[in-house]
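QA checklist item 7 of 12: single-chain prediction sanity check.
[x] sequence parsed
[x] length recorded as 332
[x] structure emitted
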Amino acid sequence: MNNEDIRGIKQLLSEPRRIAIIPHRSPDGDAMGSTLGLWHYLIGLGHQPFVIAPNEFPDFLAWLPGSERVIIYEKDKEAGTKLLRAAEIVFTLDFNALHRTGEMEHVLAALKVPFVMIDHHQKPDGYAEYRYSDTAFGSTCEMLYNFIGMMGDETRIDTKIATCIYTGIVTDSGSFRYPSTTSATHHIVADLISKGIDNSEIHTLLFDNNSFDRLQLIGCALQNMKVFPEYKTAYITLSQKELDQHHYVKGDTEGIVNYGLTIKGIIFAAIFIEHKDENIIKISFRSQGDFDVNQFARDHFNGGGHINAAGGKSNQSLKETILKFETIIKGL
């Protein structure tokens, strides 16, 4: 973000405004951490911000400070649309294309107010007047920390904001395992800890609060895993029947795809999850090294993301989708 953009945003925020803050559909830790962190920051500046998420976020994020104030568009589209149309500024965080907001897309696209994008994904669309877009960052929350600094407000990062930012950094970095974790990331985390966050408790809330049903679902997923050593690939499937048998709730499949990468010699992992209510197969891809799953998802499964972490979807059946995937990897 250049100096002209920074001056422009400072001018936008120079007096109290009604500000919409939007995460992507099916928001994860980085999306909710960044939007709620920004929400707390803007409240501190005297604005009237609101976070409006396209749909529900996982239960394991419901402890985040301010999460109870998040408006879910799918629950009341009429009220949500009215709120969006009353906004004077729109911040979009952790996505860079309006279709990532699902049914909110057309409402957002029709708004005639300034948009500010803060995001770390590739190939951003051009809807935002102000864009802080950089794929070098491992999380949008790390960028939010820098954004607040660009506004000259480092001292406004209190424990609530720091907790939100830390949550996004730790989840999107794979607990600091991914290559996008830099020395700057650790310096930021050190500062967040100095603000009074309880990093140990945050880890517990995020990763150690499994239900028995979720553990059973993970066991089912691991039993379904198929490994192709000759192609350095492993994949997992979960059918709608299996989700139902284990009383699936949003967030239960988070992180399961990573188990494939724990196998010696595997550099490419995927999970295919059947969602019959949406008539779709949701797909997550992960990789190690320089295998670009972002490009793979874009080329074959109408998706995208990062070099080592991406998502996609298929409108074919689970069986047809798996056959397509196996055919592709055998041709790589």
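[x] summary fact logged: The first helix runs from residue 3 to 12.
[ ] second reviewer sign-off
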